[in-house]
From TrEMBL:
Pathway: Carotenoid biosynthesis. The lineage of its organism: Bacteria, Bacillati, Cyanobacteriota, Cyanophyceae, Oscillatoriophycideae. InterPro entries: Isoprenoid_synthase_dom_sf (IPR008949), PhytoSynCyanob (IPR054866), Squ/phyt_synthse (IPR002060), Squalene/phytoene_synthase_CS (IPR019845), Trans_IPPS_bact-type (IPR044843), Trans_IPPS_HH (IPR033904). Signal peptide: none annotated. GO terms for molecular function: geranylgeranyl diphosphate synthase activity; squalene synthase [NAD(P)H] activity. It catalyses: 2 (2E,6E,10E)-geranylgeranyl diphosphate = 15-cis-phytoene + 2 diphosphate. It comes from the Bacteria. Belongs to the phytoene/squalene synthase family. It is an enzyme of class 2 (transferase). This is 15-cis-phytoene synthase. It holds the Pfam family SQS_PSY.
């Protein structure tokens, strides 16, 4: 048996992976207190590894059995048994925060959907997919970030603790919808359509049009419709932030505002998501940080 990385080295590895793969979320985590952000990095790495199984360079060799084994690996983590270097930080994180295994299992179920599905008929079907691959991240993150202590008053000495799980899921779904809208072209080139076929039909736009990358009035109307729906999920998420622990409101606002800017960028590109990738320039990201701080303080 090989010796595994030390706890410090393991968290450092997680930090590096997060910094390299997720510029936006990493920026958000840099605004968090140390103990929480280390845990978020560990969770990020687990999520990234899960996603890579069906989305990464080895995806072609991934089968149901691969995901079964990954689920066993997950059980081992929750039983306190790390198997590789980055697991060490994850096991430590599981010991420090009240994380539930179900969202992790649900995310694997979401990756399974990617194995056998490349179309969604209705928004309800897509929403389930979005919950599984991204809403779950909201639940995991909230367990780490925590909620503000409830206010104890003489007339309400035992206030109930509210956990904004629905709002956390909403932010995950909003992010995933944003990701889907940004990557329509890239996904089409892999034969995948995440936009509900019912929505395409509603605007008289066909799969064939999509594969050709046609940007016309029908497409622009369809995209406006989808962007509006994503923004509703962001709005729901916003309402949950003031319930969260004070020390992470700024990072969460930042993550929300930064990711939502991708939608503005798509609009700026006049909904052409086929020939360019909506990209938020660094200076625009930086300008969003004080805005997020202000919102964290006053909302
Ligand atoms: C700032 C913060 C707390 C971030 C959480 C970081 C974290 C653990 C992220 C994991 C992301 C991940 C690798 C998920 C696997 C599935 C996947 C790829 C989902 C998509 C992410 C987009 O990433 P990216 O742009 O890199 O995509 P590409 O692979 O590059 O195409 C998702 C769109 C999902 C991301 C979802 C979230 C970060 C959930 C956010 C929700 C909260 C932090 C809850 C906040 C609480 C309330 C009450 C609002
Ligand atoms: N070192 C890497 N090796 C392999 N894939 C990578 C690497 N870095 C990023 N990627 C992948 O390349 C794609 C594009 O990454 P890009 O840097 O544009 O976005 P990002 O860093 O995730 O920022 P954002 O959080 O704003 O999406 C992503 O799907 C990401 O998973
Ligand atoms: Mn990315």
């Amino acid at each position: 048996m090989r010796t595994l990385a030390s706890l410090e080295d393991s968290y450092e590895l997680c930090r590096q992976v997060t910094a390299e793969y997720a510029k936006t979320f990493y920026l958000g985590t840099q605004l968090m207190p140390e103990a929480k952000r280390r845990a978020i990095w560990a969770i990020y790495v687990w999520c990234r590894r899960t996603d890579e199984l069906v989305d990464g360079p080895m995806a072609a060799t991934t089968t149901e059995e691969t995901l079964d084994r990954w689920e066993e690996h997950l059980e081992a983590l929750f039983a306190g048994h790390p198997r590789d270097d980055v697991d060490v930080a994850m096991v430590d994180t599981l010991g420090r925060f009240p994380l539930d295994i179900q969202p992790f299992r649900d995310m694997i179920a979401g990756q399974r959907m990617d194995l056998y599905r490349n179309r969604y008929q209705t928004f309800e079907e897509l929403e389930l997919y979005c919950y599984r691959v991204a809403g779950t991240v909201g639940l995991m993150s909230t367990a780490v970030m925590g909620v503000a202590p409830p206010v104890i008053t003489p007339w309400n000495p035992n206030p109930e603790i509210i956990i904004p799980n629905q709002e956390a899921i909403a932010l995950g779904i909003a992010n995933q919808l944003t990701n889907i809208l940004r990557d329509v072209g890239e996904d089409a080139r892999r034969g995948r359509i995440y936009l509900p076929l019912d929505d395409l039909a509603l605007f008289n736009y066909t799969e064939e049009d999509l594969f050709k990358g046609i940007v016309d009035d029908r497409w622009q109307e369809l995209m406006r419709f989808e962007i509006q729906r994503a923004r509703k999920f962001y709005a729901e998420a916003e309402r949950g932030i003031s319930i969260l622990s004070e020390d992470i409101r700024w990072p969460v606002w930042a993550a929300l505002v930064l990711y939502r800017q991708i939608l503005d960028e798509i609009e700026r590109n006049e909904y052409d998501v086929f020939s360019k990738r909506a990209y938020v320039p660094k200076w625009r990201k930086m300008m969003a940080l004080p805005v997020a701080l202000l919102r964290a303080k006053v909302l």
